[in-house]
Amino acid sequence: GAVVSQHPSRVICKSGTSVKIECRSLDFQATTMFWYRQFPKQSLMLMATSNEGSKATYEQGVEKDKFLINHASLTLSTLTVTSAHPEDSSFYICSARAGGAGIQYFGAGTRLSVL
Amino acid sequence: SQQGEEDPQALSIQEGENATMNCSYKTSINNLQWYRQNSGRGLVHLILIRSNEREKHSGRLRVTLDTSKKSSSLLITASRAADTASYFCATDAGQAGTALIFGKGTTLSVSS
């Protein structure tokens, strides 16, 4: 089946640094990818929709200048958490649809800890 | 954004008992999916039920969908300690460019 690879799986960084998370669709092209955030003991909240070749669409309350999304190719989207703060510590999960309106496949997630 | 509520928020049962979790949603859907998430881990896709289906089975899982009430239920029969996890429903509008929207989840604890 279709696979979405997310890297890194875990990152620990100092406050004020930037962290880049990659999301790749391994065996299908994805014009659209999605980024979710999950705080401990809570559900997944959609942060933004990443569109290949155009600007990402952010959900209400998500700072686009803090969470930079780049979808430069049909198989790669990146999320950069800029000037990370401890409150940005969370589990970030990406997903991608196969074949337009097809099944959505999820990456394994990235656990970000900001000290 | 989130679709709606799941209940119960937490459920504790003994091994061998059945566990039922409910999910309500707000908008029209193409399908509804259930996922499991072990603590600190990624999502595991369990089952998908389409809007024109009322019931679906997969092993010890039984899912129902009532589109008139905008609700779904997940039944796990003969539960095992390994079923301990959080369970989420997610709705899919089925359109290119739209994301799955997750419910708040139910935390299931199965004790042996």
Name its key features.
heterodimer; A: 115 residues; mainly beta; B: 112 residues; 5-stranded antiparallel β-sheet
Gyration radius of chain A, in Å: 13 Å
Tell me which protein chains meet in the greatest interface and how many residues each side has: A-B, 27 and 23 residues
Q: What does the average pLDDT of chain A come to?
A: 92
DSSP summary, beta strand count of chain A: 11
Oligomer: heterodimer
Task: Give the C-alpha Rg of chain B.
Answer: 13 Å
Order of helices and strands of chain A: EEEEEEEEEEE
Count of DSSP-assigned helices of chain A: 0
Shape of chain A: globular
- Sheet with most strands of chain A: 7 strands, mixed
Structural class of chain B: mainly beta
Between the first and last Cα atoms of chain B, what is the distance in angstroms? 37 Å
Please tally the β strands of chain B and state the result: 11
Low-pLDDT runs of chain A: none
Describe this structure in words.
The complex is a heterodimer of chains A (115) and B (112). Chain A has 115 residues and is an all-beta fold. Chain A has no helices and eleven strands. Chain A has strands at residues 4-7, 10-13, 19-25, 32-38, 44-51, 57-58, 67-73, 76-81, 90-97, 104-106, 110-114. In chain A, strands 2, 4, 5, 6, 9, 10 and 11 form a seven-stranded mixed β-sheet that branches. A four-stranded antiparallel β-sheet of chain A has the order 1-3-8-7, with no helix packed on it. The radius of gyration of chain A is 13 Å and the shape is globular. Chain A starts with a strand and ends with a strand. The model of chain A has no long low-confidence stretch (mean pLDDT 92). Chain B has strands at residues 6-7, 10-14, 19-24, 31-37, 43-50, 55-58, 61-66, 71-76, 85-92, 101-102, 106-111. The termini of chain B are far apart. By secondary structure, chain B is mainly beta. In chain B, strands 2, 4, 5, 9, 10 and 11 form a six-stranded mixed β-sheet that branches. Chain B has a five-stranded antiparallel β-sheet with strand order 1-3-8-7-6, with no helix packed on it. The A-B interface holds A 31-32, 34, 36, 41-46, 49, 51, 59-60, 91, 93, 95, 97, 100-101, 103-104, 106-109, 111 and B 1-2, 30, 40-43, 45, 48, 88, 92, 94-97, 99-105, 107.
